[in-house]
Amino acid sequence: MILQVTPSPSTALPARSLTGAADYCAYPVASMESEDLHLPDQLPPGVIL
Amino acid sequence: MKARRQLLIDGHWQEGSGEHFAKHDPVSDERLWQGGAASEGQVEAAVAAARRAFPAWARTPFAERQALVERFREVLESHREDLATAIAHETGKPLWEARTEVGAMIGKVAISIRAYQERTGERRRDLGDATAVLRHRPHGVMAVFGPYNFPGHLPNGHIVPALLAGNSVVFKPSEQTPLTADLTLQCWQEAGLPDGVINLVQGAATTGQALSAHPGIDGLLFTGSARVGGILHRQLAGQFDKILALEMGGNNPLVVKDVPDQDAAVLTILQSAFLSGGQRCTCARRLIVPEGQVGDHLLDALSDAILRLRVAGQFAEPAPFYGGLVSARAADGLLKAQDDLEALGGVVLSRMERLEAGTSLLRPALIDVTGLPVPDEEHFGPLLKVSRYQSWDEAIALANDTRYGLSAGLIGGERADWDDFLLRIRAGINNWNRQTTGASGDAPFGGVGESGNHRPSAFYAADYCAYPVASMESEDLHLPDQLPPGVIL
Q1: Quick check: B456 and A28 CB within 8 A?
Q2: Strands, E, within B251-401: which ranges?
Q3: Terminus of chain B with fewer CB atoms < 10 Å: N or C?
Q4: Residue B431 pLDDT level (bands cut at 50, 70, 90)
């Protein structure tokens, strides 16, 4: 899951409009998140667990 | 493809007349590139060429600029293996990873086109008897400073959006990766980019200083260290007319809340801390682990996995997890950092060692620095510091105890823990149960603190490549039904 959230009262990413002050009142936070921690089907090259 | 070993100014390849320098493969020591750096006069000529090319390029309809950038993508496709091989040689990263970097360069084109349209582009709406229109215009001549760890992908992440927006570019790659830049510029030429729209100046600090100090640039897009980024920030202070975008490093925390699956946790840590030999700005530098048996077992398992981790040359078979650092000198710096942390009282759980004399191949370090006053530095290599904690609040405080704020990660925990982590952690990239080095290209990329200057890149690069122009417009000039108070015509 990929989320883009802003730490502001509204978590909706506003579409660009004719006003842009919202841009400098919050910073973007991008996340890759999963409730589960699990091994992938295939390990990356060079990793032996 | 064959390296030109020259500069590209106004569509013409020419010898650099500055100091000669060379780049060697950091593992095999093969000489990859040698040539002259751009002198101050050649930097001047490159900026002048970009200035001359700018008006026509900016007036070129967006559809044509897009078509040209898409041709560049096709050229990249046709030279995939040449580029990947060059990147692997120059950076020390394994060939499999260098191939993913070229894939990211190719993927950047479609993402940047979508970002241009969504983030900038044009909007209009009726407002009474006029139309309110928002357009975006290019700044002019953009200086792009590239880093060595992703010599293709990261400059490309500035250059493609800059060109799509209608800017012209003067590109100064890292002096540690001149070959990848040389080949990439040949791809732009093969795609048919008009002369002067992109220019290449090779060289180190002297060339960079000539470019960043040049009054003819309208913006500077930089990816690199916080030290150099800070110098540029101070240098451009007070120059309101120039846009400055800084993408810098981090002393990134990875917090372990609990360990629902030990092997998966170990893999996430390996991929967070040691992918690309730790030469990613999002790499975890600090592992924050609970006191007690669960944490002890995790660190034991991690130390074992580090011993089994395959580190070898870029083209070795079977493929390594990571290869060399960018230079033997960089490896020396990491070994010294380990010595310094040990001298401060750090306990080495896994010792960093040079695997072959004269190379930059290093086995990773895992060093427990709990309670020690270690400097808040980004060690740009396979060195992971461990801090143990007793309470969740202490874990969060440790994670935030940095002047940087690029990436952060959480392993384990419940949804409520993650929500709390998100609200309290200061970083622009926060991942849960995923490696800190994972970032989506269609999201913004950037951090807070000394990780940047609030100009996030990737999907938001479009924002700093153009400025907005707001208009109220009407094709007709006519009197309103009612005159303003006090006006008699």
Answers
A1: yes
A2: 252-256, 284-290, 347-350, 365-368, 383-389
A3: C
A4: very high
